[in-house]
Known about the structure:
Elements (H helix, E strand, L loop, with lengths): L10 E6 L4 E7 H4 L17 E2 L2 E2 L1 E7 L5 E7 L10 E9 L7 E10 L5 E10 L4 E2 L9 E8 L4 E8 L4 E8 L8 E7 L13 E9 L2 E2 L5 E5 L2 E2 L2 E2 L1 E3 L7 E5 L3
Antiparallel strand pairs: 1-2, 1-13, 3-4, 5-14, 5-17, 6-11, 6-15, 7-8, 7-14, 8-9, 9-10, 11-12, 12-13, 15-16, 15-21, 18-19, 20-21
Amino acid sequence: MFRIASTCLLAIGISAAALGAPAVAEPRAAAFDASASLSHPISHPSIRHAGANNSWGGYAVTGGSFDSVTGDWTVPALNCSATAGDISFWSGLDGWTSETVEQIGLDAVCTKSGTVEYNPWVEMYPADSIYFSDVVKAGDEMTSSVTTNGSGSFTLVLADPTQGWTKTYTKSLASAALSSAEVIVEAIGSQTIPPCPNFGQIQFTDVTANGDSFADAGTTNTTNLERRGVLLTQDGSLTGTSFPVTWLHA
């Protein structure tokens, strides 16, 4: 759904578990630095499907009520020699058929100058995205999770153990449907699906919903990035708690 960089002054918890320190709170303005790396506002398409276009790749599970999702991945190195473009990797609840998405993840951007930017974020769509200024590099191991207590309180966590940081975000959303769980590769941008940068292949692991493997958590749904009938990505087989997504086309 829509993700736009936000400069809201809200509160975010920052965990320094890797350093043995307790979590502390700081204003989001301190965690979000629009000048650090974003060269332009980044947002989701307003809908996941639009005719022959599809802005999501990966897997979702449906057919029940979902209160948790997890997904890990290794940050891919982008090949920006051919095209600029934005791609996002995230885990979340809702959004498959509902109007909200509770999600956390990472944008990978090939800029027009050919450089690569990695921008971690959290979003409770339809609210704007909140970007973090923490360093992410190709080859980093990342973990993500979204959980809710079923009464409208959500905890979203993104961690980069390679760099030694963890972000923990809490928010209430009473209107969440909790009707799906997803681990997704998404083409992001404004109004139309932008070029899909060459990320090679990403392997998702520890993909669970409600504590079960995606393969056993409900009805599994596969989806691929598509523009004007041309496949941009191809999902590999979902095997227990893991699956790959392979880049095919810009």
